[in-house]
Amino acid sequence: MNGYLTVSFFCFGVLIVLTYAWQRFNEPSFPNEETLPRTVEPLRYLFLKPAYAKARLLYLVGLLVMYALLVLPGPSMVGALGGPGPKEGLSPQAWPLLIALILTGLGTAPTPVKWLNIIEEQLRRWVHAWYLVPDGIRSTIAVLDDARYDPPVGQLNFLQGPLKEKCQEDLHLARGTLSYSWARATILVTSIKSMLNGALHPLKRAAFEPFKDEFFDDILVTYRALKLDVQALNPNDEDEEEKLSRSVENLLKRVYAYISWGIRYQVDSEREVDQTLKDLGFRIPDRVPGRHLFDIVVPAVLLVAVIVTAFWVANDAIGRAMGATDFPPTMYKSIVAALTSAMAASLMYGAIVSIVLKHRAAKIEQKVWRERSWRCLIPIALKAGLATWLVIVLSTVYWKPSDAWQSLIGIAQLVVQPTADTGASASTAPDWSFLPIKMATALPWLLVGMTASIFLVIRLGGDVRRIGTADRLRDAIVVAAALGIAAAAAQLIQTSLVDAFRDLGLTKESLPSDKLVWIQGLAEFACGAVIGFVVPQACRVNVVTPSDPITARTLRDLQRDARTALGSKAAGDAWVFTPNDDLRGITPAEALEYRTHATGVGSLLEIAAQRQREETRPDGSDRPTPVLIEGGRAADGTAA
Predict the structure, then answer these.
(1) Cβ–Cβ < 8 Å for 219, 258
(2) Which of 161-165, 170-174, 386-390, 629-633 has the lowest mean pLDDT?
(3) What is the spatial distance between Cα 327 and Cα 314, in angstroms, rounded to a whole number?
(4) 3-state DSSP helix/strand/coil percent for the chain, to nearest 5?
(5) What residues contact 253, with CB distance under 8 A and at least 6 apart?
(6) Which residue, 486, 157, 159, is CA-closest to 349?
(7) pLDDT score for 287
(8) Environment class of residue 488 by beta-carbon count within 10 Å: exposed (0-12), middle (13-18) or buried (19+)?
(9) Alpha-carbon distance 596 to 594, whole Å?
(10) Which residues pair with 149 in a beta bridge?
(11) What pLDDT is recorded for position 108?
(12) Angstrom distance (rounded) from CA 381 to CA 241
């Protein structure tokens, strides 16, 4: 009977969790923005058409797994969930139903659980991000903002008479001018309005029906108000023209967002999104494969493993030869210990390099990256530092699994069933302090991960043609020196922490500070040299000579255009391969690898060419004052 009740309550709890998750999935896990629909359920129109059901299913499965993990331990989980501990009146059979109510926020017993809400929200955010929500919309808006716009005849025919001719003329003006932006807005708004009225169009009317009112209530009203302002503009009022230009640019972003919602609702893949945008007249680049992260990380990781293994084996051999007693007694044990250290170092530096490259690429794609900006460097440093700390903790636990397990049991007893409540003596309780102490003494290694990531990011910047041996050696020395100093400092702090815990009676181990500080610093110096020698050069080569044929062809075309526009091969290549302030410090060659930047590189080249022409144009005010000659003599009467 008890088993039947337990199964019944569990099934009922599953239904509650599924019902809750079905609705909860549609709540945004990110701040609301102007680029998101407001008049209808927003999330549905940020997914590609077939992706919404897959994403919701993944979220449901994840939340059910979380529910099962909370149910399996039974009522003893009450203490871990924030309650006072299991009570006599709590029926074990009703536990699945109780945990379902707590997880969904419908129940108040035992207490409100904040950390469960945090885990649920993080799970929802991961699922949304995995299916490019809202990054897909942001990326499309950024691409359209910079893309060339050549509307086909079918789109232009929605305009009539002189308005059509004027818009065609204004589209040939310089990008960023009010006339150009207004012509673009006029064609797009008129085109969308015709589509919603049933005209033949690349966009499908049915896909835009759910938020049709948002177009008329927001975009169309704003467009009509700006139309009056544009018509009444005084050509000599530069301040008002600049203000009006910003308003038109904001209107265009709303139009791009509106187009993005409907397109993602009517197509099944990102390639179909691109094709529809091209049918509308936007000249957007073809999609290229992702950056070859594997080809950059793996060689560096393998070299780190070889260097670390050789270093520690040699260190142990020298120690034994000198008669020291604190080294592994045999070569076999020395090799095992060295391989374990090599595995930890490989995981640590592999994680650091991956975090640096992925985070930097993501921020460049979002157009928020700026080279050597602390606002961009700090998040990378924190992630890399935490990854380093986690690897150090796991490698420590690997050597003492029984102590780690006993520590986990002791912590669980302290949380769920304190010793004071059970009447057990403290001496018989498992030792809980092992894991907390190991986690605390590993914290100084945050410094190593943060230092490695910051210096690696810095060395990735600059002229991407720096791929010679001298440049590689310079990168290796800089990263190695920074990493060696950081590792020595981290080891010294760690030794001090271990001594402090030993003085408090929480641990019996000690670290020989006179040896480990400089030895560990030398080991990380060697690792830093490998990372600095391999990674920056691999990233630069990937930019200068891309392996992807589409990117390589686009780069060759850009080099040809730059040489023609700037007058020489040296000037053209210098512009292509050196950092550009308009690209927030990355080079135009690297910008081609990101869709949100690639569409605007051509416009930047036009601006650079125009700026060069203005700088080299003769200025009459700088010419020397001519000398007036009168009858073979100067005006002052002297001989000419």
Answers:
(1) yes
(2) 629-633
(3) 11
(4) 70, 0, 25
(5) 34, 35, 141, 145
(6) 486
(7) 73
(8) buried
(9) 6
(10) 282
(11) 47
(12) 43
H-type alpha helices, 105-204: 114-130, 135-146, 153-156, 161-170, 178-196
Per-residue pLDDT tens over the stretch 577-604: 999 999 989 999 999 988 888 888 988 8
pLDDT band of residue 549 (cuts 50, 70, 90) is confident
Q: Are 575 and 316 in contact (CB under 8 A)?
A: no
* Three-point CA angle 571, 577, 578, nearest 5°: 85
Cα(534)–Cα(544) distance, integer angstroms: 16
For residues 415 and 81, the answer to whether their CB atoms sit within 8 Å is no
C-alpha 610/C-alpha 612 separation (Å) is: 5
Query: Six-digit token pair at 48?
Result: 């590609």
**Buried b vs exposed e over 212-236: b needs ≥16 C-beta within 10 Å?**
eebbeebbeebbeebeeebeeeeee
Cβ atoms of residues 635 and 625 within 8 Å? no
Report residue 148: phi and psi, to 5°: -65, 150
β-bridge partners, 8: none
The token pair that represents 416 in the structure block:
């769920």
- 379: closest CA among 457, 489, 300, 476? 457
Residues 6+ positions from 56 with CB-CB distance below 8 Å? 22, 25
DSSP 8-state assignment for residue 219: I
Six-digit token string for 149: 């716009």
* Amino acid at the residue 153: V
Q: Which pair of structure tokens corresponds to residue 164? A: 């059509």
pLDDT at 474: 95
**Phi, psi angles (nearest 5°) of residue 44:** -60, -30
Pairing of strands 629-630, 282-283: unpaired
